[in-house]
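> call design_seq(struct)
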């Protein structure tokens, strides 16, 4: 098969010489080849093309084109062949497949969507989408998470935030956090037609959620939705979702470990955003964080407070770091005492949100729905030294209130244990015995007296002479030796050697005469 350049050379040689053999000698081919391509050109065919041969399907081609058009190019060739066979077609299925392929190609050429390159404008478009996140939590209790992925079109700046659900309050909280990271609000925000954004479609016109409209007005931004089944209109956000999932969701490809808690996932998302925003982008040749500094001048200023339309009801945190919702107490982090938080129910869970003027809304606690008389309290909301986190209710940590008490507690942990046990036993003259222990610590070492006090507390010996007697016993007893353990070679268990003679008559010894 000759190339187009070779065919053009043959035709030019023929036009120059006017003879088949002269043109063949000039082009370096056979004179029959020159005659073939000259005949094709005279018949009106393009160079390199061949005339279409007639087939047994020529009379049925209009019917095939009708079926392809009715199915919008989705009909299969085997289905077409069955329909043609029912109409009396006796040709092979291979002929049908070729005809259907040509009909589909022609139909797509007329229906093909023409894409125009989208040139973004600074400060105009923000796109966001949702992606499935990793499972977070200990083994057996891990929960599914979601990734909120936003993409500022001109600067290519990406924001990825992990959340537990994709409800309207979570969406508004993620939007506020994203805008505050960007330093302003663009003119438009584009997303999918979810129920949190679009309530319904009337005559293919999307009806916006009222709370979303209020949030858009709050930030001076119009929230729009793309056409259904048309991901090309927001490809930047979907690319952000794809890249974030490939890097953040543990797989065999990235060898990332599972996340033990939600804080670890938040740290991973922050590291991912820093990585992709500081490296040079392939399309612009500049880091997105550098371009964001220029685009911030085109963004609208943000209001001082976040939108709180869908965050629920407000509650004041009491002195015990709890709030009351429906007559049930729920704990929140102790740092929020005497502040106001927002509460809402998401299914069977109570979600507590705090609105930070600098960083926007953030979820601080999540509880299962409780009932009256059964408060929902979590230990991680209180400091480690809080009395509620001790194993024994009412247990106290000794603290010195005078010089004598401080001198006694300085001896060591055995002294503190002796103080607790002696007080619980109602020991008389405790201050005198504590002073005696301090005096003995000056004569002996602190470690010896501390060990003796610990032994006295363990044995419950709080008499007047008990501590000196324990010290004397510890001073004269031999040093502790390693504990003896029985091995396979040396055992205290009786053997079974004597069983060998069981049931055997004893032998008679000969007595000399």
């Amino acid at each position: 098969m000759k190339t187009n350049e070779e065919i053009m050379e043959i035709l030019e040689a023929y036009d120059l010489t006017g003879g088949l053999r002269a043109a063949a000698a000039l082009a370096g081919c056979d004179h029959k080849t020159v005659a073939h391509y000259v005949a094709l050109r005279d018949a009106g065919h393009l160079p390199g093309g061949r005339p279409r041969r007639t087939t047994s399907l020529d009379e049925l081609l209009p019917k095939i084109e009708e079926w392809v058009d009715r199915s919008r190019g989705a009909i299969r060739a085997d289905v077409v062949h069955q329909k043609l066979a029912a109409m009396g077609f006796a040709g092979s299925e291979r002929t049908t497949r070729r005809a259907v392929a040509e009909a589909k190609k022609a139909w797509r050429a007329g229906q093909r969507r023409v894409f125009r390159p989208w040139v973004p404008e600074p400060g105009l478009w923000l796109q966001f989408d949702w992606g499935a996140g990793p499972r977070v939590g200990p083994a057996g209790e891990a929960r599914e998470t979601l990734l909120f992925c936003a993409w500022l079109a001109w600067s290519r700046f990406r924001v990825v935030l992990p959340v537990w659900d994709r409800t309207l309050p979570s969406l508004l909280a993620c939007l506020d956090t994203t805008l505050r990271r960007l330093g302003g609000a663009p003119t438009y925000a584009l997303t999918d037609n979810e129920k949190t954004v679009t309530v319904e479609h009337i005559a293919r016109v999307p009806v916006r959620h009222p709370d979303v409209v209020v949030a858009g007005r709050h930030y001076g931004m119009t929230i729009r939705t793309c056409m259904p089944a048309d991901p090309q209109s927001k490809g930047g956000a979907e690319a952000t979702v794809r890249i974030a999932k490939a890097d953040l969701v543990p797989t065999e490809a990235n060898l990332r470990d599972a996340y033990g808690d939600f804080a670890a996932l938040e740290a991973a998302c922050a590291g991912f955003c820093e990585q992709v925003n500081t490296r040079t982008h392939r399309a612009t040749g500049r880091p997105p964080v550098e371009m964001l500094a220029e685009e911030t001048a085109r963004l609208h200023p943000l209001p001082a407070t976040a939108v709180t339309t869908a965050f629920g009801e407000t509650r004041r945190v009491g002195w015990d770091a709890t709030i009351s919702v429906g007559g049930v107490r729920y704990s929140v982090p102790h740092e929020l005492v005497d502040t106001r938080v927002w509460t809402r129910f998401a299914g069977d869970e109570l979600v507590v949100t705090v609105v930070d003027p600098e960083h926007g809304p953030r979820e601080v606690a999540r509880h299962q729905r409780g009932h009256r008389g059964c408060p929902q309290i979590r230990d991680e909301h209180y400091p480690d030294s809080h009395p509620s986190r001790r194993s024994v209710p009412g247990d106290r940590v000794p603290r010195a209130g005078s010089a004598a008490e401080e001198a006694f507690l300085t001896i060591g942990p055995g002294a503190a244990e002796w103080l607790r046990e002696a007080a619980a036993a109602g020991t008389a003259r405790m201050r005198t015995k504590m002073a005696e222990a301090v005096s003995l610590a000056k004569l002996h070492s602190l470690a010896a007296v501390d060990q003796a006090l610990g032994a006295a507390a363990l044995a419950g010996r709080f008499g007047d002479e008990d501590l000196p007697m324990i010290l004397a016993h510890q001073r004269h007893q031999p040093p502790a030796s390693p504990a003896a353990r029985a091995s396979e070679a040396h055992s205290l268990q009786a053997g079974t050697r004597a069983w060998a003679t069981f049931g055997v008559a004893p032998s008679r010894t000969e007595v000399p005469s």
